[in-house]
């Protein structure tokens, strides 16, 4: 049963500025992927960190590798991206900057261009369904793959920044992050705010201010930022009820 604090932090409107698509895949979504691909013989216990469970950073990266194996078709990407977006929305996130490195898989016909198009399709589908979240996408460059691949990715990002009606907003540099993402580490933004408040002795009003200040950091023009600030003002009475 949720405590009063749990309800407050979940209802707190939040901005998520740094979410990797694969790292944000929940245990429930991974279970669906595993059931689709029994031939991979993936062990269920290797796909998420349970609450209270300790793992080394190397073990965490193994989870990313497992997800990489499971997500190799457009159908997989569409399901994963849709699930991730809806889960962030259920956690009270109102603005999400999602990022992922476009991949190609010759065995399934997946291309980097189709990868990006499929993520955009998931964003648009969620919007059409009325999911209460505004999502933007950053095309990620894995710095481990070298300059030639990086420039390829930059060109793709430029193309989609012009053609995606504002959904692709920039590029991201990635590669070996150290303690990141809700799926791999079995957390969510509500828990992270609650942990910060507990650690630093923050009042709920201070937490609200932190959440609202994050709006200034999003990849969007000032007009959009002002719209979100107005949304925060409108939501405040019901959060502090």
From TrEMBL:
The source's domain of life comes to Eukaryota
Q: List the protein's name.
A: Adenosine deaminase-like protein
